[in-house]
Amino acid sequence: MPGKAPSQDFRPCGVLTLTTDFGHKGPFIGTMKGQILRRLPGASIVDLSHECSVHWPAEAGFWVSRAYPYFPQGTVHVAVVDPGVGSAREMILIVRDGHAFLGPDNGLLEPLCRDSGQWSAWKIDHGCLARVGITQVSATFHGRDIFAPLAAELAAGRLLPENIGKPTREMVPSILEAPELIGNRLHGVIVTVDNFGNLISNLDQSLVASFSNPVVSSGGHTFPLHTTYGQVRPGEYLALVNSFGVIEIACAERSAADGLGLERGAPVVVAEAD
Q1: pLDDT single digits (tens) 112-129
Q2: Which of the 8 DSSP states describes residue 12?
Q3: DSSP string of 93-153?
Q4: pLDDT given at position 33
Q5: Count helices and strands in the chain by DSSP H and E runs
Q6: If we measure between CA atoms, which residue out of 121, 147, 120, 178 comes closest to residue 19?
């Protein structure tokens, strides 16, 4: 794994983001925010996404790892997609690029530690919870009762990363495998479908840079690679590098997911055009 970054690289700025699979039905998101505001009334809380695929940490990790650079250094990012809540699964804090990331140790945050960036990580010590006054914890809602209060303490500067638990270099890997180059074909997978029906893959722009004339294939269909949706007529399909720097398959002014019958998990391949 990459080299270790000192925790002093994290200097809280009072901004927090929330990423969950909770949706917007019920008081779950609101009570997380309430816990943060009880401890840090001036906090700036941003909802990154609450529509991540339920029980599937990989999508939340995908979005967090691509969205955090758009926030100021010193932001605390809380990500909770936690099907193992209340079990023996551990909790983890990661610091990289001046940002702090809190979540269950179930593979959600592991992509942050894959590349050559400098990072540090700690497994959260239950003794730390008592030290910051976290004493009543539901077995099924650690987002509200553990992650939100800890995030507030970090954002307030009252809790330092090195005081949250034991440093670690080990964490549960993401169930979303990294793209793989096999011969002259790059293999990835659809991670999510957005509100427009665009099929978003895990193939980063940098991975296709070596292709001189790439085409994208999925579900038995092949798509030319364009730069924007307006380069094809309404109803036509295309592939492009989207605003988060990954390959997506789209249909101009239509839903590619509905039209092609594809969804999360569909294989995606990039190859040279014939």
Answers
A1: 998 767 999 999 998 999
A2: -
A3: EEEETTEEEEEESSSSSGGGGSSS--EEEEEEPHHHHHHTT-----SS-HIIIIIHHHHHH
A4: 98
A5: 6, 15
A6: 147
